[in-house]
Specification:
CATH superfamily: Winged helix-like DNA-binding domain superfamily/Winged helix DNA-binding domain
Number of domains: 1
CATH topology: Arc Repressor Mutant, subunit A
Strand order of the largest sheet: 1-2
CATH architecture: Orthogonal Bundle
Structural class: mainly alpha
Order of helices and strands: HEHHEHEEHH
Largest sheet: 2 strands, parallel
Number of strands: 4
Strand content: 5-15%
Radius of gyration: 14 Å
Length: 122
DNA sequence: ATTGTGACATACG
DNA sequence: CCGTATGCCACAA
Protein backbone atom coordinates (compact mmCIF):
# COMPACT_ATOMS: atom_id res chain seq x y z
CA UNK A 1 0.00 0.00 0.00
CA UNK A 2 1.20 3.41 -0.85
CA UNK A 3 2.60 5.50 1.90
CA UNK A 4 2.45 8.68 -0.02
CA UNK A 5 -0.90 9.61 -1.53
CA UNK A 6 0.93 11.80 -3.98
CA UNK A 7 3.17 8.98 -5.03
CA UNK A 8 1.38 6.20 -6.80
CA UNK A 9 4.47 4.17 -7.42
CA UNK A 10 5.03 1.10 -5.32
CA UNK A 11 6.42 2.09 -1.94
CA UNK A 12 9.93 0.92 -1.17
CA UNK A 13 9.79 -1.95 1.24
CA UNK A 14 12.56 -0.35 3.18
CA UNK A 15 10.42 2.58 4.16
CA UNK A 16 7.48 0.41 5.04
CA UNK A 17 9.51 -1.44 7.63
CA UNK A 18 10.52 1.76 9.32
CA UNK A 19 7.00 3.15 9.26
CA UNK A 20 5.58 0.00 10.66
CA UNK A 21 7.90 -0.03 13.61
CA UNK A 22 7.40 3.65 14.22
CA UNK A 23 3.66 3.13 14.35
CA UNK A 24 4.15 0.60 17.13
CA UNK A 25 5.57 3.18 19.47
CA UNK A 26 3.10 3.49 22.34
CA UNK A 27 1.42 6.78 23.12
CA UNK A 28 3.55 8.93 25.32
CA UNK A 29 6.68 6.91 24.68
CA UNK A 30 9.63 7.57 22.41
CA UNK A 31 12.44 5.69 20.77
CA UNK A 32 15.63 6.43 18.93
CA UNK A 33 16.78 6.08 15.35
CA UNK A 34 19.43 3.69 16.49
CA UNK A 35 16.94 1.48 18.32
CA UNK A 36 14.80 1.16 15.22
CA UNK A 37 17.81 0.51 13.06
CA UNK A 38 18.92 -2.14 15.47
CA UNK A 39 15.55 -3.82 15.52
CA UNK A 40 15.34 -3.90 11.75
CA UNK A 41 19.00 -4.86 11.54
CA UNK A 42 19.55 -2.03 9.13
CA UNK A 43 23.02 -1.45 10.40
CA UNK A 44 22.68 2.24 9.97
CA UNK A 45 20.53 4.68 11.88
CA UNK A 46 20.80 7.14 9.04
CA UNK A 47 18.41 5.09 7.01
CA UNK A 48 15.75 5.43 9.66
CA UNK A 49 15.72 9.19 9.76
CA UNK A 50 15.96 9.28 6.05
CA UNK A 51 13.01 6.94 5.57
CA UNK A 52 11.07 8.84 8.19
CA UNK A 53 11.62 11.99 6.27
CA UNK A 54 9.91 10.51 3.24
CA UNK A 55 7.07 9.17 5.33
CA UNK A 56 5.91 12.53 6.39
CA UNK A 57 3.48 13.09 3.59
CA UNK A 58 0.66 10.64 3.89
CA UNK A 59 1.57 7.91 6.30
CA UNK A 60 0.18 8.25 9.76
CA UNK A 61 3.55 7.85 11.31
CA UNK A 62 4.24 9.34 14.73
CA UNK A 63 7.63 10.58 13.66
CA UNK A 64 7.66 12.94 16.61
CA UNK A 65 8.22 9.94 18.85
CA UNK A 66 11.57 9.26 17.27
CA UNK A 67 14.57 11.17 18.54
CA UNK A 68 18.30 10.74 18.41
CA UNK A 69 20.29 8.92 21.05
CA UNK A 70 20.64 12.02 23.19
CA UNK A 71 16.89 12.45 23.37
CA UNK A 72 17.01 15.58 21.28
CA UNK A 73 14.30 16.51 18.82
CA UNK A 74 16.76 16.57 16.00
CA UNK A 75 14.09 16.10 13.38
CA UNK A 76 11.94 18.98 14.42
CA UNK A 77 13.13 21.14 11.56
CA UNK A 78 11.56 18.72 9.12
CA UNK A 79 8.07 19.21 10.46
CA UNK A 80 5.69 21.78 9.02
CA UNK A 81 6.74 24.04 11.84
CA UNK A 82 9.85 23.77 14.02
CA UNK A 83 7.73 23.67 17.15
CA UNK A 84 5.25 21.05 16.00
CA UNK A 85 7.30 18.08 17.14
CA UNK A 86 7.62 19.44 20.63
CA UNK A 87 3.96 20.35 20.78
CA UNK A 88 2.92 16.87 19.75
CA UNK A 89 5.06 15.32 22.44
CA UNK A 90 3.75 17.64 25.09
CA UNK A 91 0.24 16.71 24.08
CA UNK A 92 1.16 13.14 24.87
CA UNK A 93 2.41 14.07 28.27
CA UNK A 94 6.07 13.97 27.33
CA UNK A 95 8.05 16.73 28.93
CA UNK A 96 10.40 18.57 26.66
CA UNK A 97 13.01 21.07 27.65
CA UNK A 98 15.33 22.87 25.28
CA UNK A 99 14.53 20.47 22.44
CA UNK A 100 15.42 17.55 24.65
CA UNK A 101 13.20 14.85 26.13
CA UNK A 102 13.01 14.91 29.90
CA UNK A 103 13.12 11.52 31.59
CA UNK A 104 14.37 10.28 28.26
CA UNK A 105 15.74 7.07 29.67
CA UNK A 106 12.43 6.14 31.29
CA UNK A 107 10.29 6.98 28.30
CA UNK A 108 12.56 5.19 25.89
CA UNK A 109 10.78 2.36 24.17
CA UNK A 110 13.02 -0.16 22.49
CA UNK A 111 11.41 -2.10 19.61
CA UNK A 112 13.82 -5.00 19.89
CA UNK A 113 12.68 -5.59 23.46
CA UNK A 114 8.97 -5.08 22.91
CA UNK A 115 8.27 -6.43 19.47
CA UNK A 116 8.59 -9.98 18.17
CA UNK A 117 11.91 -10.63 16.50
CA UNK A 118 12.03 -10.44 12.76
CA UNK A 119 12.41 -13.62 10.80
CA UNK A 120 15.64 -13.20 8.94
CA UNK A 121 15.40 -14.12 5.33
CA UNK A 122 11.78 -15.21 5.42
C1' DA B 1 28.82 2.62 -12.41
C1' DT B 2 30.00 6.90 -9.69
C1' DT B 3 28.89 10.73 -6.70
C1' DG B 4 26.46 13.26 -3.39
C1' DT B 5 23.29 13.37 0.41
C1' DG B 6 21.50 12.55 4.95
C1' DA B 7 15.70 13.44 10.98
C1' DC B 8 22.46 8.96 13.15
C1' DA B 9 26.13 6.82 16.09
C1' DT B 10 30.65 6.12 17.82
C1' DA B 11 35.46 7.18 18.56
C1' DC B 12 39.07 10.40 19.35
C1' DG B 13 41.61 14.68 20.78
C1' DC C 1 31.42 19.89 26.13
C1' DC C 2 32.89 20.74 21.29
C1' DG C 3 34.59 19.80 16.68
C1' DT C 4 36.31 16.38 13.43
C1' DA C 5 36.54 11.95 11.24
C1' DT C 6 34.66 7.71 9.90
C1' DG C 7 31.22 3.98 9.25
C1' DC C 8 26.91 3.21 7.71
C1' DC C 9 23.64 2.11 3.35
C1' DA C 10 19.40 3.29 0.41
C1' DC C 11 18.41 6.34 -3.05
C1' DA C 12 18.35 10.11 -6.65
C1' DA C 13 20.64 12.24 -10.46
Amino acid sequence: MPVNPFDQKAPPSFYDSVFEVTRQIPFGRITTYGAIADYLALGSARMVGWALNKSFYGAQVPAHRVVNRKGELSGRVHFPTPTMMEELLIQEGVEVENNQIKHFRELLWIPAENLPPIDPGK
